[in-house]
Write a structure and sequence with these properties.
By secondary structure, this protein is of the alpha/beta class. It has ten helices and 21 strands. The protein binds thymidine-5'-diphosphate and magnesium ion (MG). It holds the Pfam family AAA_25.
Length: 455
């Protein structure tokens, strides 16, 4: 047998080094390297003397068992998952503290328990009484969920081993779990990884859908090692502003379905309510046209969502460095757009503070937002309101071209349905062929300076 190798894992970023260092070479964190338990390395041999056993190969075309998805009872949850829970799969659910992860999963567990499945909910953060109180508030106290407050993975798996495997197992959260076979406090990389490994193995062997709740660090990544994201089948993120009502469930990785569908929920007094038609949600009550506000028909997977983009420009008198702040959109993308507006359209933002906000706590990831952001910025700079009945979409290149985007006709159709009268988008190309709804007047633009002329 080969000699065990020493490995040191950074507790902050999960990177592995072969010797101990004071500072992690990857993330720069000090004193974060911890020696892992020794690992044994095997080498490939032409006989079976290593103690390994032969594995079975099956041809790809041989009919196998296709796992049947189970509906969770919350259509928005199923939609984000790509069509329901897959037995024997592991889902990692991340999100800011207090965003509603525990609430959502308790509701899912209750639905499954009420529709003939069995759900087990293990809380490492709250006492069973607290979870029960929440269930009462959600009107779910009668749901036959098996509830436990535990943090030892060995205890949890031993107990589960004595009963029939449940359809759904929720672990809230993976950072609170610990295994007595692994060194380190709960929440350290080796504990999180080891506990997740044991739980995932149990789920795969028994056809259980496992949901691991994961804490999120300040920069939005799921705390603990990135390897956790590689170990699970689905990574979901529950997003929103705590001060706003709406929550979006997004899948960032999905081995069984698409990753661009979202589930939309509203946090209400009695839990999360599903929002089946979200296209209106992120429009503020607009009456009079306001300078700096532009409506963007965004696409979330196959669904259009209309969002309002707000820009504010404050001229500075002194020579102080102007601030730029973006909420709900990419910072770098805004800097790029400002540079293109300066270089290609001759607009001057350099001595002004620029603020950009996407209404309703929504986070935009659709690249077609460029044109709407540009329109909002130009409108704010000139203090000229945009027409109240217009929507804007299109991607802007560094050369100042307005480029075609996907789903142009769905964007226009939805805008017309919601009462908008005109759309401004890319001219020509597959996305900008002017195929419009009769109710909507489409203006195709090819260069950013054309946009400035129209505002
Ligand atoms: P929670 O599910 O505990 O969040 P997480 O597990 O992501 O940390 O949700 C906590 C917040 O949700 C809390 O601030 C109160 C709010 N809430 C409601 O508004 N309505 C409800 O019915 C429930 C249960 C919670
Ligand atoms: Mg919680």
């Amino acid at each position: 047998m080969a000699k065990p190798k020493r490995r040191y894992t950074c507790q902050a970023c999960g990177s592995v080094a072969s010797r101990w260092q004071g500072q992690c070479a990857d993330c720069g964190e000090w004193n974060s390297l911890v020696e892992d338990a020794p690992q044994t390395v095997f080498s490939a041999k032409h006989d079976l003397s290593s103690g390994g056993r032969p594995i079975q190969f099956t041809p790809l075309d041989q009919p196998g068992e296709v796992p049947k998805r189970r509906a969770s009872g919350l259509a928005e949850f199923d939609r984000a998952l790509g069509g329901g829970l897959v037995p024997g799969s592991a889902i990692l659910m991340g999100g800011d503290p207090g965003i509603g992860k525990s609430t959502l999963l308790l509701q899912v567990a209750a639905h499954i328990a009420q529709s003939g499945g069995r759900s087990v909910y293990v809380s490492g953060e709250e006492a069973a009484g607290q979870v029960r109180l929440r269930a009462e508030r959600l009107g779910l106290s009668k749901a036959p969920i098996q509830l436990a407050a535990a943090t030892s993975v060995r205890d949890i798996l031993t107990t589960l081993g004595t009963m029939e495997p449940p359809s759904l197992l929720v672990i809230d959260s993976i950072q609170t779990m610990h295994s007595d076979q692994i060194e380190g406090a709960p929440g350290t990389v080796s504990q999180v990884r080891g506990c997740a490994f044991e739980l995932i193995r149990y789920a795969k062997e028994n056809g259980v859908t496992l949901v691991l709740v994961g804490h999120v660090t300040k920069d939005g990544t799921i705390a603990g090692p990135r390897v956790l994201e590689h170990m699970v089948d689905v990574v979901m993120s529950f997003e929103g502003e705590r001060s706003h009502q709406y929550r979006i469930l997004r899948s960032l990785k999905n081995r069984f379905g698409p990753v661009d569908e979202i589930g939309v929920f509203a946090m209400e007094g009695d839990g999360l309510a599903e929002v089946g038609n979200p296209s209106m949600l992120f429009l503020s009550g607009r009456e009079d046209p306001m300078a700096g506000s532009a409506v963007f028909p965004a696409m979330e997977g196959t669904r259009p969502v209309l969002v309002e983009i707000q820009a504010l420009i404050v001229r500075l008198q002194s020579g102080a460095t102007p601030r730029r702040a973006v909420v709900g959109w990419d910072n770098g993308r805004m800097a790029m757009l400002l540079a293109v507006l300066e270089a290609r359209c001759g607009l001057n933002f350099s001595s002004a503070e620029v603020y950009l906000n996407v209404a309703g706590g929504y986070r935009l990831s659709d690249p077609a937002a460029d044109l709407a952001v540009a329109a909002a910025l130009i409108s704010a700079l000139g203090d000229k309101p945009l027409p109240n009945d217009a929507v804007w979409f299109g991607e802007v290149s560094l050369a100042g071209e307005i480029r075609p985007v996907a789903h142009a006709s769905i964007r226009q159709r939805e805008s017309a349905k919601l009462g908008f009268g005109r759309a401004v988008g890319p001219a020509g190309g597959p996305g900008g062929d002017g195929k419009t709804d009769k109710a909507l007047r489409f203006t195709g633009l090819s260069m950013l300076p054309n946009l400035v002329d129209r505002i």
